[in-house]
Design brief:
The structure holds two protein chains of two kinds. Chain A is mainly beta. Chain A is built from no helices and nine strands. By secondary structure, chain B is mainly beta. Chain B has no helices and eleven strands. In chain B, strands 2, 4, 5, 6, 9, 10 and 11 form a seven-stranded mixed sheet that branches. Chain B has a four-stranded antiparallel sheet with strand order 1-3-8-7, with no helix packed on it. Classes of the chains: A mainly beta, B mainly beta. At the A-B interface, β3 and β4 of A face β4, β5, β9 and β10 of B.
Chain lengths: 115, 114
């Protein structure tokens, strides 16, 4: 799997938007960009994923650069409950019905949210 | 739905002891995974099972064995625990195939080996 690079930590004020960057310069055409987050003392949880177009869901938005070498996870209004480690992960599309959805985690970005 | 459940939540072992970590999912997922997470690190894949009846090694399989008991259950066994296996262990499950399926994680088992 191709490698991703994220800042170790970021800070945000509550109620403000947060932009979490991820570089993936060696991404291949079949790699999807996945984001997971891990709240303190919990297992990771899925946030969002995309291939080429920007994506929105109830948790966040994903903005993907035109050349796909970078992406940005956008939390529109950070709350204290969004304080977590955010992981940007590349995953190739499964090639057959028996393919498992393996993920390779880096160290992620630790987001601190303050009042 | 309970999602992914893991037992026990905490465990302390002495070096050389054995134990089995249990994982079950109720989402009818084909694929299941075991990860470990050391302090300040991301998760690393130990073993996975793409479907019932199959298991494969991940990034760090040494010192571990797994059993896919049925579609719901996937257990991880430490035959002779070592201090280097002190970690938090997460089980996960997902659908499988040609789509991009999210993984659902359990709450983790905190294991200390003294």
């Amino acid at each position: 799997d191709a490698k991703t690079t994220q800042p170790n930590s970021m800070e945000s004020n509550e109620e403000e938007p947060v932009h979490l960057p991820c570089n993936h310069s060696t991404i291949s055409g079949t790699d999807y960009i996945h984001w997971y987050r891990q709240l303190p003392s919990q297992g990771p949880e899925y946030v969002i994923h995309g291939l080429t177009s920007n994506v929105n869901n109830r948790m966040a938005s994903l903005a993907i650069a035109e050349d796909r070498k970078s992406s940005t996870l956008i939390l529109h209004r950070a709350t204290l409950r969004d304080a977590a480690v955010y992981y940007c992960i590349l995953r190739s599309r499964g090639m057959n019905t028996g393919t498992a959805s393996k993920l390779t985690f880096g160290t992620g970005t630790r987001l601190q949210v303050t009042l | 739905n309970a999602g992914v459940t893991q037992t026990p939540k905490f465990q302390v072992l002495k070096t050389g002891q054995s134990m089995t970590l249990q994982c079950a999912q109720d989402m009818n997922h084909n694929s299941m995974y075991w990860y470990r997470q050391d302090p300040g690190m991301g998760l690393r894949l130990i073993y996975y099972s793409a479907s019932e009846g199959t298991t494969d090694k991940g990034e760090v399989p040494n010192g571990y064995n797994v059993s896919r008991l049925n579609k719901r259950e996937f257990s991880l066994r430490l035959e002779s625990a070592a201090p280097s296996q002190t970690s938090v262990y997460f089980c996960a499950s997902s659908a499988s195939g040609t789509g991009n399926y999210e993984q659902y994680f359990g709450p983790g088992t905190r294991l200390t080996v003294t």
